[in-house]
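Q:
Got a chain?
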Amino acid sequence: MPKNRNTFSSLTSRLLHAGWRRVQEAGAVTPERPGRLRFGRIGEGTRLAFPQGTVFGEPWIELGHHCIIGEQVTLTAGMMPDLDLGPEPILRLGDGVVLGRGSHVIADTKITIGSDTYCGPYVYITSTNHSYDDPHEPVGKQWPRMEPVEIGPGCWLGTGAVILPGARLGRNVVVAAGAVVRGEVPDHSVVAGAPARIVRSWTEEAGWLPPLRTPAPVPIPDGMTSEQLLALAELEES
């Protein structure tokens, strides 16, 4: 390939990437730039990355402060757009909630996600499930069942986790990647599997049972600079 063609391709690529970054910045939703979306509340520092997924029922959606909503995240309140859902919010996110790319939160009835809960990519949280009581009627045509969902503060939901209607997760619960959760999960539990079961839990008296296999990470001391951290890493490698 001629040199000038390579140069042209490289320049085109850089221009396209720069243009897409500008589109992403312009299309992000923030309290100052909500675009077409009129949430019941959107807290200071909260940002919905562009492109957004499906979003409707936003007057009944409340987002806390400093939430991070990744690209292609779906947030819905109600079974379809343009319904009157009453005076109370249907979907509430606390402060500092993170929803990873491609996640879905489908709130046909109330869903609450506690502050500082982090979700990996493609997490699915729903308050609605199909019913199949009538064996002669297509499942998709049968009236669904709806139950509220509550996720406590400080939880971590791994990639591809599914939280089903009626689930109630306590504080600082870890949900393993791909787990399917229903029912109640106590504080400080780790759940895995489909259906999810408790594989580890913590109490003040006994600590973690079964015991953790790795030592706890050492926190970075206050005031340590990035240069000091780099020098420390190089020292450990030598």
About this structure: The chain has a mean pLDDT of 91.
